[in-house]
Amino acid sequence: MSTLKPALTTTLSLTLMALLSACSSTPDDSQIVGLEPTQSDDATVEEAAQEETTEDETPTSVEEEFGSEYVYADDLTVLLTNLERRVSGEWYMPENTPYVYFDIQFENGTGSPVDLSYLSVYCQIGEEGRTAEDVYTDDTGSGFTSAVMDGRTATAGYGCALPEDESYLQVELTLSDWEEMDDYVRETVYFVGDVA
User: Fold this and answer.
1) Rounded distance between C-alpha atoms, residue 19 and residue 123, angstroms
2) Top-confidence residue, 31 or 88
3) 65-190 adopts what CATH topology?
4) Residue 78: what pLDDT?
5) Cβ neighbour number for residue 16 with a 10 Å cutoff
6) CB atoms < 10 A from the CB of 11, how many?
7) Mean pLDDT of 72-87
8) N or C: which end of the chain has fewer CB within 10 A?
9) For residue 17, is it left (φ>0), alpha (ψ between -120 and 50) or beta?
10) What is d(CA 114, CA 108) in angstroms, rounded to the nearest whole number?
11) pLDDT in tens, 117-153
12) What span, in angstroms and rounded, lies between the C-alpha atoms of 99 and 86?
């Protein structure tokens, strides 16, 4: 029994040393577990910045009710006023036609002149959204022909054919600025509502 004890002690010591050395050695490929990469804080900050930029972008079009105004990003204000049903006379084009008259007014707070001669105006009428014919009278037809200076207001009259049995009107305004040759086009503004 005395010879068994040292042999048993030696065997246990060797086994313990083998286990310790196995634990302290580097793992082989089968022991390495792959982890999914986590998103860095920089990527999160970049996404947040992109969302803010998207929210700050100028819209391509806006819709306003009659009686309201719209202010562009550069502080140019547009409003549509004085809607009134009329009938064109025999010397106007087209003659003897029911139409709606309205004024388009720009108030310039941009700090520099704004050329209004590139304003496009289109009318749609009725529930079907039919394109309305322009009506030319002494009060309509010439539109804007020049710039409005900073701090000033400019007004021009327009007319669109509107049958007596129709009330819904949509007026589409698009103002381009070709002075700087940068093809800058402001957002399209739609004034909509019913004409009494």
Assistant:
1) 89
2) 88
3) Immunoglobulin-like (2.60.40)
4) 97
5) 10
6) 10
7) 95
8) N
9) alpha
10) 7
11) 999 999 999 988 999 999 999 999 789 999 999 999 9
12) 5
